[in-house]
Amino acid sequence: MPFQKLKLELDERAVKGLQRYRRVLESPQGVHITMEGKPYLSFCSNDYLGLANHPQLIAALQSGSQQYGVGSGASHLVSGHFAAHQQLENQLAEFVHKPAALLFSTGYLANLGTVQALVGRGDTIFADKLNHASLNDAMLLSRAEIKRYRHNDVAQLEQLLAENHAGRKLVITDAVFSMDGDLAPLPEILALCERYEAWLLIDDAHGFGVLGRSGQGSLAHFNLTSPRVIYMATLGKAAGVAGAFVAAEQVVIETLVQSARSYIYTTASPPALASALQASLTLLSTEEWRREHLRYMISQLREGLAGLPWKLMLSDTPIQPLLVGSNEDAVALAEALRARGIWVPAIRPPTVPQGTARLRITLSAAHSEENVVQLIGALHELVY
Asked: HSE on the CB side for 62, CA within 13 Å?
């Protein structure tokens, strides 16, 4: 058998409780979903504002398809850059208070292209150890020297920056860490970048739309502005659609247009998605009640789960990780909830460190108080 070794590796993964599975949804994304023929109350989506199935976004997508068709047909630099793309880039740049913005098909591609375009051999990257996998892959592909600092350890970051005297310096951090739900100390990190002449790339995939005034993200949350900041955010989470963008100084964006391989050598996303995202940006920026309700849901959940043997990690964001410990126990707890009609994913190594398997509870503005009470009640029942 030509792939016997792969089969053995997969079997070993299954024995360790690390096998991943794809669950098939048969309904729109939302609080109430149908998965593999059964109804579930979902606490596993990154649709933080409940926009993924919003009728105004659906209407905008239909209108965009009628105007521009289905596919873009080419890369942005050949013939795939449509008026809807350009309009959305302008709106996103204005929304996050940056001179310019550039659309990418996914956040993964945005991080790959940005890091590789900005640094290379002879340069140094300084990165939080809990950064997203896309940032880690981007660092490796850039061929720059990599120095990783302990999670949110500003003192160690300063030590590493002070020791480096050659080439470009790029500090990279998530704004909201996707598996822990905590925030990076962005004011302190930016102050270090100013002091040591470094650039700062912020991945705000889980902060954009949720944090800051009008959902403008982590920079607005901390009231930060600096030309040193290169800001990346995704559009398939709080924005409810798909894609990502990078916002920065005009010279940075032009550098990405010329040199970011994941931008240059891929077909542009369908322009109709840009039309849907323009509608999303309007809702995201004007309907403050969604963020207010979300904050209330977070408070309700944390209060209701206090005292359980599984501890909620410290997080004020929609990402509420319930620390379980072993892979087997986390999977068993997730399956017990699933048997009760509640879907919460078990997150295991290598996504999180060994011994910190957890349930990753994610809340949405579309959840009701009754939905959260149902989850709290189920987890209390499963203690005994």
From this structure: 7
Provide CB contacts within 8 A for 329, sequence distance 6+: 357
Token duo for residue 342: 């509640």
Which pTM was predicted?
A: 0.95
Residues of the chain with CATH 3.90.1150.10: 20-49+288-381
- Annotated active-site residue 285? The verdict is no
Q: What is the DSSP string of 74-110?
A: SBIIIII--HHHHHHHHHHHHHTT-SEEEEESSHHHH
Side-chain-side CA neighbours of 306 within 13 Å: the count stands at 6
Catalytic residue list contains 206: yes
Give the right CATH number for 20-49+288-381 from 3.30.450.20, 1.10.8.80, 3.90.1150.10, 3.30.70.270: 3.90.1150.10
Selected catalytic residue, list 42, 45, 134, 178: 178
Q: How far apart are CA 244 and CA 41, in angstroms?
A: 28
Q: Which of 196, 194, 199, 195 is nearest to 173 (CA)?
A: 199
**CATH architecture designation of domain 55-286:** 3-Layer(aba) Sandwich (3.40)
Sequence ranges of the chain with CATH classification 3.40.640.10:
55-286
Euclidean distance between CA atoms 196 and 188, whole angstroms: 12
> pLDDT tens, position by position, for the chain (384 residues)?
789 999 999 999 888 878 888 889 999 999 999 999 999 999 999 999 999 999 999 999 999 999 999 999 999 999 999 999 999 999 999 999 999 999 999 999 999 999 999 999 999 999 999 999 999 999 999 999 999 999 999 999 999 999 988 899 999 999 999 999 999 999 999 999 999 999 999 999 999 999 999 999 999 999 999 999 999 999 999 999 999 999 999 999 999 999 999 999 999 999 999 999 999 999 999 999 999 999 999 999 999 999 899 999 999 999 999 999 988 999 999 999 999 999 999 998 888 888 999 999 999 999 999 999 999 999 999 986
* N-to-C CA span, the chain: 47
Asked if 364 and 49 touch (Cβ cutoff 8 Å), the reply is yes
Which of the following is catalytic: 54, 85, 98, 237? 237
Out of 206, 221, 293, 367, pick the active-site residue. Answer: 206
Q: Would residue 178 show up in a list of annotated catalytic residues for this protein?
A: yes
